[in-house]
Amino acid sequence: MMEKKKILEEGLLELYLTGELSEELTTAVEEALEQDKSLKEHFDALEADFERMGMEQAITPPDAVKIRLKNTIGKTPTTRNWVPLSIAAGFALIFGLSTFWLYVQWQNAESNLNTLQLQTSRLQQQVDELESEFRLTSNRLENINNPNVIPLVLYGNQKAPNGKAVAYINHKSQLVFVNPKGLPQLPDDKTYQMWSDVNGEMINMGLVPTDKELVSLKYIENAESLNLTIEPASGSEHPNVEQLVSFVTL
């Protein structure tokens, strides 16, 4: 038996209604209609739509035409008069069915076009995001590979065994980046935070999340050391020295 999906996708029901199918396809569609209840219901609804369209497109003839037709019928045998009328009705039905089938195909094409446009838009958005991320990464790599950059390694203490972060400082351009990938993961309610020691005062440089390759921090002039602590997820105004993980002098 021919699959329901094939019949619907190829518009075979519409062609069956208009009598445009080959004998083989006509037999296959009729067998499918007999065995598939849902397909038969779809066909009945389609046939009803065709009939409704035919009625909506019907044109009421003028009275003079009606009178002339009655006179002609009265003069000519009935069996002959109905032949051209039947042919005309058949052509009208075929025209209506063909119009409806073309309308259905146009609707499907428009839907497919909208889907394709949406997919294209999403793909373009992904490409733009990748390009933006690539430019950002390239700029950061250029910054840390600059000859004026000083790399500093912060090794973890007992609070972060085997932990390590690398800070890149460029005093000339006043930029600071940190690679935190060597630090242990923290609970969701905790984060790392970097501080600069300036004349005994700890100044906040920013949070150091571990889910990024490079983190940009605030440059602090006259800093004597960098200090990494564990703080609440939202950060702290003052460092918790008891949660000091690592430090390095400049």
Topology summary:
Elements: H1 4-9, H2 12-18, H3 23-35, H4 37-57, H5 63-75, H6 78-144, E1 149-155, E2 164-170, E3 175-182, E4 190-198, E5 201-208, E6 215-217, E7 225-232, E8 244-249
Antiparallel strand pairs: 1-2, 2-3, 3-6, 4-5, 4-7, 7-8
Helix pairs in contact: 2-6, 3-4, 4-6
Residue-averaged pLDDT: 79
Question: Radius of gyration from the CA trace?
Answer: 40 Å
- Unreliable stretches: 76-85
Main sheet strand line-up? 1-2-3-6
How many beta strands in the DSSP annotation? Answer: 8
Distance between the termini: 81 Å
Main sheet record: 4 strands, antiparallel
- Per CATH, the architecture of the domain at 149-249 is Sandwich
What would the principal axes of the Cα set say about the shape?
Answer: rod-shaped
Structural class: alpha+beta
Question: Overview of this structure, please?
Answer:
It comes from Flagellimonas oceani. Residues 88-240 form the Anti-sigma K factor RskA C-terminal domain. The chain has 250 residues and is of the alpha+beta class. Among the domains are: 4-67; 149-249, Immunoglobulin-like. Helices cover 51% and strands 22% of the residues. It has six helices and eight strands, in the order ααααααββββββββ. It has helices at residues 4-9, 12-18, 23-35, 37-57, 63-75, 78-144, and strands spanning 149-155, 164-170, 175-182, 190-198, 201-208, 215-217, 225-232, 244-249. Strands 1-2-3-6 form a four-stranded antiparallel beta sheet, covered by helices on one side. Strands 5-4-7-8 form a four-stranded antiparallel beta sheet, with no helix packed on it. β4 and β5 (201-208) form a beta hairpin. The radius of gyration is 40 Å and the shape is rod-shaped. The N and C termini lie far apart (81 Å). The relative contact order is 0.08. Residues 76-85 have low confidence and may be disordered.
